[in-house]
Amino acid sequence: MPHKTELYEDVPPTCWPIVYSPDYNITFMGLEKLHPFDAGKWGKVVNFLKEAKLITDDSVVRAREATEEDLLVVHTRQYLNRLKKHTMESFEEWSFVVATITEIPPVLFLPNFLVQRKVLRPLRTQTGGTIMAGKLAIERGWAINIGGGFHHCSSDKGGGFCAYADISLAIKFLFERLEGVSKATIIDLDAHQGNGHERDFMEDRRVYIMDVYNRYIYPGDGFAKRAIRWKVELDWGTEDGEYLQKVKAHVESALNEVKSDIVVYNAGTDILDGDPLGGLAISPQGIIDRDEIVFRAARKHKIPILMVTSGGYQKRTARIIADSLLNLHSIGLIDKELATGEARDAQVEMMSREPKDARPARH
Question: Which PANTHER family match (predicted)?
Answer without folding.
Answer: HISTONE DEACETYLASE 11 (PTHR10625:SF23), HISTONE DEACETYLASE HDAC1-RELATED (PTHR10625)
